[in-house]
Amino acid sequence: MKRNNLSPELLAPAGDYACFEAALSAGADAVYMGGGGFNARAYAGGFTDDEIKKAFSLSRLYGKKIYITLNTIVFDKEMKEALSLADRLISYGADTFIVQDIGLAKCLKKAYPDIILHASTQMTCVNSDGVKKLSELGFSRAVIAREVPKKDLAEIASKTDTELEYFVHGALCVSVSGQCLFSSVVGKRSGNRGECAQPCRMCYTVQGAKNDFPLSLKDNFLGGYINELSDMGISSLKIEGRMKSPEYVYGVVSSYRKAIDEKRNMSDREKTDLSALFSRSGFTDRYFSHNSQGSHFSMIGVRTDKDKEKTAKAESEIKKIKKTLPKTEADISCTLSKEMTCLSMTANGNTVYVSDKGCDGAVNRPTTEDEIRSQLEKLGDTPFKAGNVEINKEGDLLIPKSLLNGLRREAAERLTEQFSSFTPIKKLEEEETSEKHSPSLDRSAAIRFLFGLPDPSLESLNAVCDVISKNKSKEFEIFLPLFADDRVFTSMMSTGAKTIGAQMPPIFFDSEKTAVISRLEALYGLGIRHILCENIGDTEALRGLEEKGKKMILHAGARFNTANSHTCKALSCFGFESVTLSREINEKGAKYTGLGSDVRRGAVLYGYAPLMLLQRCLYRDMKGCAADTPWNKCTRSLTLKDRTKAEFFTLPAFGHRNILFNSVATLRPDALKSGFDFATFTITRESTKEIKDILYSLFKGKELQGYTGR
Description:
The chain is of the alpha/beta class and about 700 residues long.
């Protein structure tokens, strides 16, 4: 819904203090920046403590906002450090944090009830159900994933009063926000930890395809939709770029500032100018405007030498521009008499008073009000510009300029100092930050089978049935893809597995929700009661079923990226019966994560790691296929070969999306005996023999070679 008639906030990036000043000079309403750690741009220049303090002082002075990014996942052993960092930043003046980790958000909100939390785009908020759940968690704003198209973004906005933030400019990830493990699994540099090595920008060959950079997207440009986004009620238009230069920040922010102030969309000329400042062979708006139409190749772009030459020229021109920080309007009131001269100065709700001796009576020519006003308005190098000037003069007076200048300078100095003082938000209590339990290492975990294909092959199903029938002493759980054939569900219900459930799609937009709900209701009719959720918004969709008397038992999948005990406890409070821990926790850390919570804990045992969730079907774009092929019946796979000859493969996912899988399967034998309640075994392209050989070797404690530990 449209929240007000005001223009949307213009939110700028700042990787260091020079970029912060560039953002303010260009007219940003707010700036987002890291505060020293646990932010998704670990390699940005960063701020010293003194620079952070100065930035907050200036933001108060100019009526701007600063949002601190604490938007990485946090391990149990790090929670105390993360909260200590938040404490320090709050003591400098911070009150708003962008957060990805549910556990960290829970701790911050408990310690600081008045804290303002924004849900990072890394939380993969893609529908109105997700926004509603985030609001219940204490978030006042949701940063909507960049992949959400126009019609679905409008639908979200129409259903919530929660502030919505949306990226309008800058780099695009080919993976859905928050769903990329490529850099982490393959390069040991986690994007969810702020260390992304950008493997998507590398060359990958696909046999029979012309483009060798299928994962590298052009930069996003939505300057042509400013009015449309404003009319939707989007609260904040966000510019990406904490790794970019001050010239980039100044150039992009100033262009958007001008268009927003003039309540118009950007022109083609402005788009061309911004593409020169930085782009990868131009811009794209396809996620927003034509999400399900056209070729993926129109989005592909790489950074060429020509692009770099254009950037160097554009930045050199911006460096010539004299940049000045914005002036804050100050109202001045001056009372003059023979007994005393008093002056007050007010800006952004702050007022100071100064006084001095009285003035002599005028013998010849009295000082006029225009002359007094002229002296009082000379605020020069101060952070202020004169607003309303009120003069109260008793009789004809001869007023020395030195008197007026002295009062004005003293008032401006005191007012500037006043903006440096503030009252930090109140902390209620110390938060417990770690669990002190030892796991029971001799407990054998149940095997939870998952499937990579939307409709599992008969071969893989037969292998699962055979394993279950020959291992009666072990517990097994089966979660089939939501849209698998009804006959698959009914046949698996006779296997003797402890649990038969359905796995939700990785994501779905509001426009796709009807199909998901209809399928859930159909499965309920078949007797399915267990649902493996992959997104925080899934709980709202299932709540709607519960209100109809169709209650499901909820399980949190690995896409929740659960990395600490506080998140486990929070998910338990949301009604989850089990939680699969993040693939990014090492085996030692995983043993202790979640202990002390009421949820059953599980870890990855085996499977090809899903590296990326792709919003488009690469096979259809690169190889071509019938447009009317049902996505859930498709088995086509595309192979991407990198420079080391490693071969990554894709499989179809809900809504004609793709999942890109690792070239080597993960194997973590400790998941069977590390105090876990279950261990996940994901089947993608394994043969019946491979499935049986791996499982039986694990059951016998044999060492297996040729797998990765991530």
